[in-house]
# Entry
Amino acid sequence: QVQLVESGGGSVQAGGSLRLSCAPSGRTFSTYVTGWFRQAPGKEREFVAGFRWSGDSTYYSDSAKGRFTIAGDNAKATVYLLMNSLKPENTAVYYCAAKTSQDYSGRYIYTGWYDYWGQGTQVTVSS
# Structure
Protein backbone atom coordinates (compact mmCIF):
# COMPACT_ATOMS: atom_id res chain seq x y z
CA GLN A 1 0.00 0.00 0.00
CA VAL A 2 1.32 3.39 -0.96
CA GLN A 3 1.37 6.02 1.74
CA LEU A 4 2.76 9.48 2.11
CA VAL A 5 3.66 10.67 5.58
CA GLU A 6 3.94 14.32 6.49
CA SER A 7 5.74 15.59 9.57
CA GLY A 8 7.09 18.81 11.02
CA GLY A 9 3.89 20.68 11.69
CA GLY A 10 3.27 22.50 14.94
CA SER A 11 2.48 25.82 16.56
CA VAL A 12 4.63 28.90 16.05
CA GLN A 13 4.31 32.62 16.51
CA ALA A 14 4.03 34.97 13.58
CA GLY A 15 7.41 35.51 11.97
CA GLY A 16 8.60 32.03 12.91
CA SER A 17 9.63 29.13 10.70
CA LEU A 18 8.74 25.49 10.25
CA ARG A 19 10.08 22.76 8.01
CA LEU A 20 7.63 20.16 6.80
CA SER A 21 8.71 16.77 5.46
CA CYS A 22 6.94 14.37 3.14
CA ALA A 23 8.21 10.83 2.70
CA PRO A 24 6.73 7.67 1.25
CA SER A 25 5.91 4.77 3.52
CA GLY A 26 5.34 1.20 2.50
CA ARG A 27 5.70 0.28 -1.16
CA THR A 28 8.19 2.49 -2.96
CA PHE A 29 7.17 4.17 -6.19
CA SER A 30 8.62 6.64 -8.63
CA THR A 31 7.32 10.16 -8.40
CA TYR A 32 7.13 12.76 -11.13
CA VAL A 33 6.03 15.69 -8.99
CA THR A 34 5.48 16.05 -5.25
CA GLY A 35 3.20 18.87 -4.27
CA TRP A 36 2.30 20.62 -1.04
CA PHE A 37 -1.23 21.86 -0.48
CA ARG A 38 -2.99 23.40 2.50
CA GLN A 39 -6.54 23.58 3.68
CA ALA A 40 -7.77 26.10 6.22
CA PRO A 41 -11.10 25.62 8.03
CA GLY A 42 -14.00 26.35 5.74
CA LYS A 43 -11.79 26.79 2.68
CA GLU A 44 -10.84 24.68 -0.29
CA ARG A 45 -7.53 22.89 -0.47
CA GLU A 46 -5.04 25.08 -2.30
CA PHE A 47 -1.67 24.58 -3.94
CA VAL A 48 1.38 25.87 -2.09
CA ALA A 49 4.47 24.48 -3.83
CA GLY A 50 5.63 21.65 -6.06
CA PHE A 51 8.85 19.79 -6.79
CA ARG A 52 9.56 17.94 -10.02
CA TRP A 53 12.10 15.20 -9.38
CA SER A 54 13.57 15.19 -12.88
CA GLY A 55 15.53 18.39 -13.17
CA ASP A 56 14.67 19.59 -9.64
CA SER A 57 12.20 22.15 -10.94
CA THR A 58 10.18 24.01 -8.35
CA TYR A 59 6.79 25.69 -8.48
CA TYR A 60 5.21 28.12 -6.02
CA SER A 61 1.92 29.82 -5.44
CA ASP A 62 2.05 33.60 -5.37
CA SER A 63 1.58 33.59 -1.60
CA ALA A 64 4.49 31.19 -1.10
CA LYS A 65 7.03 32.90 -3.33
CA GLY A 66 9.84 34.52 -1.40
CA ARG A 67 8.96 32.94 1.97
CA PHE A 68 8.66 29.21 1.31
CA THR A 69 11.25 26.90 -0.22
CA ILE A 70 10.61 23.40 -1.51
CA ALA A 71 13.43 20.91 -2.01
CA GLY A 72 13.88 17.20 -2.56
CA ASP A 73 16.36 14.72 -1.13
CA ASN A 74 16.76 11.90 -3.62
CA ALA A 75 18.55 9.58 -1.20
CA LYS A 76 15.70 9.80 1.30
CA ALA A 77 12.92 10.19 -1.29
CA THR A 78 11.77 13.07 0.89
CA VAL A 79 10.47 16.49 -0.04
CA TYR A 80 10.82 19.37 2.38
CA LEU A 81 8.87 22.58 2.62
CA LEU A 82 10.69 25.27 4.55
CA MET A 83 8.32 28.01 5.60
CA ASN A 84 9.74 31.30 6.84
CA SER A 85 8.12 34.50 8.06
CA LEU A 86 4.93 32.63 8.85
CA LYS A 87 1.68 34.57 9.20
CA PRO A 88 -1.55 33.72 11.03
CA GLU A 89 -3.25 33.29 7.65
CA ASN A 90 -0.86 30.40 6.94
CA THR A 91 -2.67 28.38 9.60
CA ALA A 92 -3.99 25.23 7.94
CA VAL A 93 -3.57 21.51 7.56
CA TYR A 94 -0.74 20.95 5.10
CA TYR A 95 -0.86 17.94 2.80
CA CYS A 96 1.67 16.46 0.44
CA ALA A 97 0.68 14.68 -2.73
CA ALA A 98 2.44 12.64 -5.37
CA LYS A 99 1.97 12.46 -9.12
CA THR A 100 3.56 9.22 -10.30
CA SER A 101 3.42 9.49 -14.09
CA GLN A 102 4.88 12.08 -16.41
CA ASP A 103 2.36 14.72 -17.39
CA TYR A 104 3.36 17.91 -19.19
CA SER A 105 -0.06 19.52 -18.87
CA GLY A 106 1.17 21.84 -16.14
CA ARG A 107 -1.83 21.03 -13.97
CA TYR A 108 0.22 20.63 -10.80
CA ILE A 109 -1.88 23.22 -8.96
CA TYR A 110 -4.99 21.04 -9.16
CA THR A 111 -5.73 18.45 -6.47
CA GLY A 112 -7.20 16.01 -8.99
CA TRP A 113 -3.89 15.79 -10.86
CA TYR A 114 -2.22 13.85 -8.06
CA ASP A 115 -2.38 10.12 -7.43
CA TYR A 116 -1.59 9.81 -3.72
CA TRP A 117 -2.08 11.98 -0.67
CA GLY A 118 -0.82 12.08 2.87
CA GLN A 119 -2.97 12.51 5.97
CA GLY A 120 -1.81 16.05 6.60
CA THR A 121 0.02 17.90 9.33
CA GLN A 122 -1.40 20.84 11.27
CA VAL A 123 0.37 24.20 11.15
CA THR A 124 -0.87 26.88 13.54
CA VAL A 125 0.55 30.41 13.49
CA SER A 126 -0.43 32.72 16.32
CA SER A 127 -0.23 36.50 16.25
Q: What stands out?
A: The two ends are 40 Å apart (CA to CA). The chain has a mean pLDDT of 95. Residues 37 and 46 are 5 Å apart (CA to CA).
